[in-house]
Amino acid sequence: MNPTVPLIFRKGATALITGAASGIGLATAQRCYAHGMHLVLLDYNSDGLSNATKLFPTTGPNRVTTHVIDVSSMDEWVRLRPKIEAFHPGGIDFLMLNAGAGLAPTNGKGLWEDAEYFQRTFAINVLGYTNALVAFLDSVTKEKAARRAIVLTGSKQGITNPPSNPAYNASKAAVRTVAEHLAFDLSETAQNVSVHLLIPGWTYTGFHTAAFKEKPPGAWTSEQVVEFMVQKMAESKFYILCPDNEVTEELDRKRILWATRDLTEGRPPLTRWRDDWKGVIESEWDKMMP
């Protein structure tokens, strides 16, 4: 048994992954498939999902099924559940909730003028996770012997809260809260199920292809994120805070600590980006504990 690979990644286990057509979701599916796991791949992008399945030959022992779904719709989850249960009566061993969207206001509206920008962002990035948990949490927790795991993909923007996209930041902050409560509750009721909050760094995915035709040197690949995730899952880490080729783990810790001190020290919000706080940051930053 390889101690650097969690027991969840084992032959014959079943992984259900949302946002599986590209990026981190697809890279995770490839990792699961390589370990002989069965795959249940969900995405809203039917063409992307169809192309992704070409990476998973059906000639081997792995069973691979795909489902096009709007994760924000509870009705669609309700209709999907019996189809998946019929194919995987033993339940889900690895549930990865990864579907997300980074939306922007439309029709020339500002950030605080477009209600749909907030509604749709929260519907996908928050309700897409809670809907999945309502539909499939008991499928993960009903087995009390085998090791199982749930991963929720968050974002550093939900922690350090940089300006410019309040809906996305708030939605990812909500994912963090959901994950923390889920981990707490399952630590008492389903101790064989580990919960993890994946917090990627700068990762070159479909979110960035419009701005960058090739991977920027500072970004990690999705495969690097998944490798880091697997390593930290093996170490039983809940917070999986990924570095990248520009931002070290020490720098992440400083940024998180600074943001937290806005609250604990009674400072204005988001001082790290305020012009009138630049002098304070310059004098205090290097003194902070790594």
In short:
Belongs to the short-chain dehydrogenases/reductases (SDR) family. The protein is of the alpha/beta class and 290 residues long.
CATH homology superfamily name of the largest domain:
NAD(P)-binding Rossmann-like Domain
CATH topology of the largest domain: Rossmann fold
Strand content: 5-15%
| Number of DSSP E strands | 7
Q: What is the residue-mean pLDDT, rounded to a whole number?
A: 94
CATH class of the largest domain: Alpha Beta
| CATH architecture descriptor text of the largest domain | 3-Layer(aba) Sandwich
Q: Label the structural class.
A: alpha/beta
Task: Tell me the helix content.
Answer: 40-55%
Q: Largest sheet, order of strands side by side?
A: 3-2-1-4-5-6-7
Low-pLDDT runs of 5+ residues are none
H/E topology pattern: EHEHEHEHEHEHEHH
Q: Which shape, going by the Cα principal axes?
A: globular
* Largest β-sheet summary: 7 strands, parallel
The number of helices is 8
For the termini, the CA-CA separation is: 34 Å
Total count of domains: 2
Kindly provide the radius of gyration, computed on alpha-carbon positions and rounded to a whole number of angstroms: 20 Å
Protein name: NAD-dependent epimerase/dehydratase domain-containing protein
Family: Belongs to the short-chain dehydrogenases/reductases (SDR) family.
Pfam family, one: adh_short
Keywords: NADP, Oxidoreductase
Describe the structure.
By secondary structure, the protein is α/β, with parallel strands linked by helices. It folds into 2 domains: 14-244, NAD(P)-binding Rossmann-like Domain (Rossmann fold); 248-289, no CATH class. Helices cover 42% and strands 12% of the residues. It has 8 helices and 7 strands, in the order βαβαβαβαβαβαβαα. It has helices at residues 23-34, 46-53, 74-87, 115-141, 166-189, 222-234, 249-264, 278-284; strands at residues 14-18, 38-43, 64-68, 94-97, 148-153, 193-199, 239-241. The protein has a 7-stranded parallel sheet, sandwiched between helices. α1 crosses α6 (222-234) and α3 runs parallel beside α4 (115-141). The longest helix has 27 residues, at 115-141. The radius of gyration is 20 Å and the shape is globular. The mean pLDDT is 94. This is NAD-dependent epimerase/dehydratase domain-containing protein. InterPro entries: NAD(P)-bd_dom_sf, Sc_DH/Rdtase_CS, SDR_fam.
